[in-house]
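Schema walkthrough. Field components (list of strings):
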Amino acid sequence: MGLLIRRSNPDAKGEGSVMDENVSVPSGAATGSAEGSTAAIPSSATPPPSTAESAAPAATQPQSEAQPKATDVATTAVAADAAAKPVTPAKPVAAGPADPDAKPAPPKAPVPSKAPPAPKAPPVMEATPWQGPLVDAMQTLLGSDLHRAATFRNQDFVEVTAERVPDLLLFLRDDFGYAYLVEETAVDNPTHERRFELVYILYNFDTNHRCRVKARLADGAAMQSVTSLYAGANWMEREIYDMFGIPFEGHPDLRRILMPEDWNGHPFRKDYEVHNQDIEWVHENLHIESAQ
Amino acid sequence: MTQLAETAFLDSQELVLNMGPQHPSTHGVLRVVLKLDGERILGADCVIGYLHRGIEKIAENRTYIQFVPYADRLDYVAAVGNGLGYCLTVETLCNIEVPPRAQALRVVLTELNRIASHLVWLGTHALDIGAISPVFYTLREREEILNIFEEFCGARLTTHAIRIGGFPYDAYDQMKEDVLGFCGRFVKRIDEYERLLTSNRIWISRLRGVGILKADDCKRYGVTGPMLRAAGVKWDLRKAMPYSGYDQYDFDIPIGTNADTYDRYLVRMQEMRQSVRILRQAITNLPDGPVLAKFPKVLKAPVGEVYVSTEAAKGELGFYLVSDGSTKPYRLRVRPPSFINLGALDRMVRDTLIADVVAVIGTMDIVLGEVDR
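Field assembly_structure (string):
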């Protein structure tokens, strides 16, 4: 993987000079993954309380990963990245002792254990609170249903209760001029108890401001359609229904849009592997063994 | 006459007509099911997905850098613009600062590609309406642009020219002369197209008042790009939320007044002239310096999510990127302008005549690779 990247731009200037940053310190990622690791330590430490004392497996893990750190060459950095993947199942063993070891050997232990737990941990965004009259107005409208108002990379977003989304969108459209629904989509996070996150991106032509409204929805629950507020939501909700299987209440024409009508499964769910297919549909309609 | 029409053998009924997916004027594999009362359209239902590749799912299984060439395959007529949109999104998420020279070069390539995209639109749109000759001229000029791309990066259509952080290579020696030479020739060529079409009586009568979508409707449907501007909304993301140094260039946003197919034609013609203006400024004042930002080769994005959009040839092209801190996107959503614009087709063709459907599909300037993804 890393080799491919390296080969693709061999004549790029200044590449070699940043090589030493390769291992684990991307420009903005340092703080983000650090937060991720702190959040990950309790979760990864809880499953193996008994193995925390076993120093023998812990000693082998950091050794194998300490090598790429010693020699900062691109190939070893790639190896470190590749090695980070297989470590994942053994992570509880490695991360358990990493916590007590943090004081004596800080550069060795946290760095290798940092990379694998990051995807496991619930995402921690370095977002700053978003304040202003708009947030205050939303607060008075929604009360405790407004869970969070924050800014990340100068992009404002709010997290609200799913049932209140149509209210909020109507309010934002009519009272604050957010007349344009840029985007409506969903993100699947199966480990979360409410696995789907619906994302609405709104734009105000007058103030040139864009904001995101996000709401979490459990699997099987229906979301209220906003097609009556924004006609453009029609196709976007059909696509979400098609790809994630989220039904929309009050949608005028809820059909699949990209996949075949009688296809079984919703491809953008995380538990739908990239090679998955509805083999019966493929046999019946395409008369071939497999669509792969 | 009325008495005749009431007889049994001249009884009328609604007809469902299937247009596409193999139809020369649907611009790809678009299928439109039309409900007709005589020649009048009662409703249109688009059947799409024939080109669905699941690009958003593919993105979750590729690294940030590996996905760049896939982005080109969305709107393959304006591939550079797609690559720019995706790379800007990743750069915003990872806080990568692109060197000024790379930013200006990006503008050059994107504007060239915008012209190329508009030329394909103009040629095929005119062909659909019945003007056969413009397509030969527009593809001739597009060829010049593709030659510049080929000289720059070796590819003509799906260029993979723009990379995360800038460019892998600098402009070639003769690029400035080539681009300026093209600009000089092309401005005269736009005049030629306009002489062929702008005051052509058949052209006007086929396009005037056809496929009207007023500004309010555009906003309700999320329709952007030249279609929104033809409705009189002076909104262009290059001005509203400048990226890649567009705020340094002096250009206007052409707008229309009647929100019909003819105004969209005028807007796009003016946009090509504005693109030439931007091109001349960008290529003559190309800053010196590196063309690639310094960032780790194994790119791990910080945890977070961003939405970044650019003014593509068809409208607002957005990428919503969710990162879980690994080397791959957790979720990448493409906001395709063609898909959203096509959603307004039913609204635009209702109660018009069947011959106008061809004009409306043409004026939307859709690319099915982007609609279906």
